[in-house]
Every structure is written in structure tokens, then in C-alpha cells.
């Protein structure tokens, strides 16, 4: 199969879909891999590394799309890429369709085969291709939140870990999934007091078993959320419903109950966000302030640590890329039901009800 790896053109997206090691595995099976020149530079991989691994380097993104039967990316195609996608071309990437009607319409019109990383799902419900980026984003949420709590950036001026004689900062985490657990781990490591809310009691029991005593769990409800936002310094939105829009757990009206300088980090921004006031931002302009509340809503948080993120992503995607390349998408999705669950839009047909529900029956 002819496989293309274009350079990511989303704002400050420095990840790349395949490492040179991944290219080597594919070429070792007899596949042709076309990599756009400088695609790996942001992650620390030079064109020479790809050539040595067997890649054919192409000068433009247009050439990569034109030559390839399957496109492997990190982030969803941008409007610039929409017309480059061909009928029956397989596009394997993070799509997050439920948060973008324009993207959904464009992929329906393209009649391509769109397989979304974020909805590839094992029999037990785990999301193997979303997990590593959720781990990165969860840890970064605390790293970034701690920074934006600083007063020069309009935060409350709170040191999360506190110091002797001064209590630590308080972190509220909405959601006890992969993002939430990784965020709790980082916040606890800094010495912050952490409260985690979820409606899944199994997850709360798990968190209670593995976390230190200064990480406490409570059942999530509107009442408990409204109570805790009044005295927490950093609030992490970490709720995911696979393939669907994230629930809005904090409304605009609730901002008035928070202390000025409270920081909101919405890791669910790709799926529409956990907060009513969420709007996607970039690493170039990561924050905005509404009612004295700092919002950090970067839609590609792991893109800030591309070396780590690219390695972590290729670790899990390469298995599926090989299956798609070796077997073709139809056979691969049939033999590997977890991969089949990632089929989102196929030759103009929407395959996942969460997408049509997000856009009122599109």
C-alpha cells in the first residue's frame, strides 16, 4: 500500500504521525511510505532519518495526498486539506467529528474512508489510541494550570504545593478517566489537595485505592460541582463520552461563584468542552479571561511536547496501521472489531450515531 504522512499544519502542532521506526516497519513489509519534507522536524526527527528508514520524501502536502492510498495523520484535516482528500482514500487520524459540523460535511463530501483514532475501542470499552494522548494531556493539564495560576498571568497567585505554614492549592478534577487519573497523579505529586468527581463508582473506588490520602473522591452532581468551584484554585475538565460531545458541567452563570483568578483547563475541548465558556485556543494564544476566570482550552495540548507525544502515539497506532496496510481497510476492520469501531464516515455515509446526534440527525 502507498501510505502518506503529511506535515501537520494546525497551529503549533509539532507532532508527526509516524516516527522513522514506524516507517521502517512499514517498508519492511513492502509498503511505500511518502513523508512530506520537514514533517518530523518538530518532533526531533530529520528528513535524513526518514530516508534511512526507507521513506520517499516529497516536497509538498499536495504531493503526499496525491500519491497515497492511505493518509496517516495526528490531527483532523484542516480546511486547506479538505479538497486534497480523494474518494476511497483511507484517512486515519484523530477526527473528533462531533465538535465540527464543517469537518463532518467535508469528509462526507470527500467520500473517503475516515477512521478515527479516538473511537477505536476494545471489547472492554478502553480506547487504545486515545489513551496515550490522554495520559500526556492529563499530566500537562496540571503543569499548565500551575503556571497560569501565577499572578503575572492573571491567576490567583497560588503555589499548588504550598510551603510550610501555608496550605497547598486545591485542584478539582471533573472525571476519573485516564485524563483525570493522570492529572490527579501530577497534582498529588506537587502536594496539592485534590478532589475528583465522577458518576462511575467503580472508577472512584479505583482512584480511592491507588491515590494518596490528599486525593479525595466524591460522586459528581450539579450540587457538588457548584459547592466545590467556590473554593478550588484549579479546575480540570476531563470528561469523555467516546465519539460524542462532552457534557457541559460548568455553565457561564457558575463563573460568578468562583474566586477571581481561578484557572479552568478544559481537556475535553476537542469534543466541545466541559465548560459552557470553552472555546478552542492554540499554544500561540492559549488563554482568555471571562469574568476574571482564566480559561486554558488548547485543542492539541500534547503538541507542546511533540517528542514524547509522537513516540507515545506511534507505539499504539503502528499495530493498526500495519493491519490496514497489510489487509486493506475492509478486511482489517472485519478481522479486528476494535479497529472497525473507529469507522466514522465511509464513502459519504456516517457510521456513528453520536455524530448524527451531535448535529441533530445530519
From TrEMBL:
<dbReference type="InterPro" id="IPR008142">
    <property type="entry name" value="AlaDH/PNT_CS1"/>
</dbReference>
<feature type="binding site">
    <location>
        <begin position="267"/>
        <end position="270"/>
    </location>
    <ligand>
        <name>NAD(+)</name>
    </ligand>
</feature>
<comment type="similarity">
    <text>Belongs to the AlaDH/PNT family.</text>
</comment>
<protein>
    <recommendedName>
        <fullName>Alanine dehydrogenase</fullName>
        <ecNumber>1.4.1.1</ecNumber>
    </recommendedName>
</protein>
<keyword id="KW-0560">Oxidoreductase</keyword>
<feature type="domain" description="Alanine dehydrogenase/pyridine nucleotide transhydrogenase N-terminal">
    <location>
        <begin position="4"/>
        <end position="137"/>
    </location>
</feature>
<dbReference type="GO" id="GO:0000166">
    <property type="term" value="F:nucleotide binding"/>
</dbReference>
<keyword id="KW-0520">NAD</keyword>
<keyword id="KW-0547">Nucleotide-binding</keyword>
<feature type="binding site">
    <location>
        <position position="220"/>
    </location>
    <ligand>
        <name>NAD(+)</name>
    </ligand>
</feature>
<feature type="active site" description="Proton donor/acceptor">
    <location>
        <position position="270"/>
    </location>
</feature>
<dbReference type="GO" id="GO:0042853">
    <property type="term" value="P:L-alanine catabolic process"/>
</dbReference>
<feature type="binding site">
    <location>
        <position position="279"/>
    </location>
    <ligand>
        <name>NAD(+)</name>
    </ligand>
</feature>
<dbReference type="InterPro" id="IPR008141">
    <property type="entry name" value="Ala_DH"/>
</dbReference>
<dbReference type="Pfam" id="PF01262">
    <property type="entry name" value="AlaDh_PNT_C"/>
</dbReference>
<feature type="binding site">
    <location>
        <position position="198"/>
    </location>
    <ligand>
        <name>NAD(+)</name>
    </ligand>
</feature>
<dbReference type="GO" id="GO:0000286">
    <property type="term" value="F:alanine dehydrogenase activity"/>
</dbReference>
<feature type="binding site">
    <location>
        <position position="203"/>
    </location>
    <ligand>
        <name>NAD(+)</name>
    </ligand>
</feature>
<feature type="binding site">
    <location>
        <begin position="239"/>
        <end position="240"/>
    </location>
    <ligand>
        <name>NAD(+)</name>
    </ligand>
</feature>
<feature type="binding site">
    <location>
        <position position="75"/>
    </location>
    <ligand>
        <name>substrate</name>
    </ligand>
</feature>
<dbReference type="InterPro" id="IPR036291">
    <property type="entry name" value="NAD(P)-bd_dom_sf"/>
</dbReference>
<dbReference type="InterPro" id="IPR007886">
    <property type="entry name" value="AlaDH/PNT_N"/>
</dbReference>
<feature type="domain" description="Alanine dehydrogenase/pyridine nucleotide transhydrogenase NAD(H)-binding">
    <location>
        <begin position="149"/>
        <end position="297"/>
    </location>
</feature>
<feature type="binding site">
    <location>
        <position position="15"/>
    </location>
    <ligand>
        <name>substrate</name>
    </ligand>
</feature>
<feature type="active site" description="Proton donor/acceptor">
    <location>
        <position position="96"/>
    </location>
</feature>
<feature type="binding site">
    <location>
        <begin position="298"/>
        <end position="301"/>
    </location>
    <ligand>
        <name>NAD(+)</name>
    </ligand>
</feature>
<dbReference type="InterPro" id="IPR007698">
    <property type="entry name" value="AlaDH/PNT_NAD(H)-bd"/>
</dbReference>
<dbReference type="GO" id="GO:0005886">
    <property type="term" value="C:plasma membrane"/>
</dbReference>
<dbReference type="InterPro" id="IPR008143">
    <property type="entry name" value="Ala_DH/PNT_CS2"/>
</dbReference>
<feature type="binding site">
    <location>
        <position position="134"/>
    </location>
    <ligand>
        <name>NAD(+)</name>
    </ligand>
</feature>
<dbReference type="Pfam" id="PF05222">
    <property type="entry name" value="AlaDh_PNT_N"/>
</dbReference>
